[in-house]
Every structure is written in C-alpha cells, then in structure tokens.
Amino acid sequence: EDSPAAKEGLEEGDQILRVNNVDFTNIIREEAVLFLLDLPKGEEVTILAQKKKDVYRRIVESDVGDSFYIRTHFEYEKESPY
C-alpha cells in the first residue's frame, strides 16, 4: 500500500515476469528478493507482470509454494516444565 509499485498498479498475486530486462520466470523467490534488494535506491525500475490472482489464491489456500524449512539433526529433551 502506498508503495511506488502499488501506485503503478502492481497488486498482491501478480506474477513478475521481468525486471529491468532480467527474466524472472525461472528464478526462485529468494533469488528475486535478493535481486530486487540489490537495485540502487532511486533508480528507475521497469517491471513486466501479469495478473495471476486466481493462481495465487489457490497456492495460498492449498499451502503449497516455496518456503524455507530448517531441519535439525539432533534430539532435544526438555529438562524442566518451563
């Protein structure tokens, strides 16, 4: 809300296809975030996106998507009730 992207019409659920001539169709979310964070502040950014709200809603409702999971490889036993 109130971001430059929102003011230009980008909405939750839109699929970003290209940013400044860099293809985003086959990169994972974490790579996309790192790329976007690395853009110089104040630089003009060109984004090509398409509306995919229906697909986005299905992903959110089905709990499918790319997420970070950390698996630990040790056993832990609580020593006290605290």
UniProtKB/TrEMBL annotation:
Pfam families for this protein: PDZ
Protein name: Tight junction protein 1
PDZ domain segment(s): 1-51
Signal peptide residue numbers: none
Gene Ontology MF annotations: cell adhesion molecule binding
Domain of life: Eukaryota
GO biological process, any: cell-cell junction organization
GO CC list: bicellular tight junction; plasma membrane
